[in-house]
Specification:
Elements (H helix, E strand, L loop, with lengths): L2 H21 L4 H22 L6 H28 L8 H4 L7 H9 L4 H23 L5 H9 L2 H15 L5 H27 L6 H26 L6 H8 L5 H10 L3 H13 L1 H13 L2
């Protein structure tokens, strides 16, 4: 699918939600729960079942996603302690990237279908981390026992585990079941984007400087730590651009949904997701220029 077309689809979905939110009031928290707990698990399961998750390149994709996200988090935590600021309310949209809905079609457009399995593995690694590390950060004000309960019964993590089992064992589902599952799976990301638009309809972008900082750090952290990973571990040359591009995609829509569900930093997350996505064509051009001189 053409990159510009995909980008326009993203903004059309956000615009629909924005207009709907201006016309009438919606319960954003309920919509977030609908996406996270009832639609996204189907999307995740089908994404994992259909790819090859064996091979040395797969290891590099898993490790690179973990490396970028982990060290971005560590850097922000240390900076917060030095400055005496609690950054936990603002961390998710800076650390976690939209490596799925935008990243996967971009990799397919630039490098062909054979590289999409690598992008899916990277994205699902990020999914595991956002629903473990990310949920722990956003839910830091929630009692530990309650937080652990949320993690243990998280439908997305169950979907990831089930998808890996089906993938590695060669198990398959009847076609009519796959057809049924594909309906909620395909609706997950559009509904998430509409929900984001509804949330934006009631927000005031008062602190544009702070939001701009979040956007810049999202791209900087992604590109810097991906480059550091490549420098330290020398992955195969053909997958280096894939790692760089996926690591420097806009803020993850899920960072907003989780922030909304945990009631922590949701307005900042929504604004950062929107602005980082709006500016992505410019950053993608700069990232591709950076890749050509590597």
């Amino acid at each position: 699918m053409n990159i510009s077309y995909k980008w326009l689809v993203v903004f059309l979905a956000i615009l629909i939600g924005f207009v709907a939110g201006k016309i009438r009031k919606f319960n954003v928290e309920d919509l977030s729960v609908l996406v996270v707990n009832y639609l996204l698990p189907f999307y995740v399961f089908l994404s994992i079942v259909g790819v090859n998750i064996i091979g040395s390149n797969i290891f590099y994709m898993i490790f690179s996603a973990f490396f970028v996200i982990f060290f971005s988090t560590v850097f922000i935590v240390i900076s917060g302690k030095i400055l005496g600021i609690d950054f936990s309310s603002y961390m998710l949209p800076v650390v976690f990237m939209n490596s799925g809905f935008l990243g996967i079609p971009i990799i397919e457009s630039l490098f062909g279908y054979e590289k999409t399995s690598l992008a899916i593995i990277y994205d699902q690694t990020q999914s595991v981390l956002i629903f473990t590390l990310g949920l722990s950060i956003a839910g830091s004000d929630i009692p530990k026992r309650e937080r652990l309960k949320v993690l243990l019964i998280n439908p997305v993590l169950f979907a990831i585990l089930l998808g890996i089992i089906f993938n590695l064992t060669g198990l398959s589902l009847p076609q009519y079941i796959l057809n049924f599952i594909s309906f909620p799976a395909k609706s997950a990301l559009p509904v998430a984007l509409v929900t984001l638009g509804i949330s934006l309809s009631s927000l005031k972008l008062e602190n544009l400087l702070f939001i701009s900082g979040g956007v810049l750090f999202r791209y900087f952290f992604g590109l810097f730590f991906a480059s550091l990973f490549i420098l330290l571990f020398s992955p195969p040359k053909e997958i280096m651009p894939v790692i760089l591009i996926l690591s420097a995609t806009p803020s993850a829509v899920m960072s907003y949904l989780i922030s909304e569900e945990c009631k922590k930093g949701a307005s900042f997350a929504a604004s950062t997701v929107f602005v980082s996505t709006l500016l992505y064509p410019l950053f993608l051009f700069l990232i591709l220029k950076y890749i050509t001189i590597q």
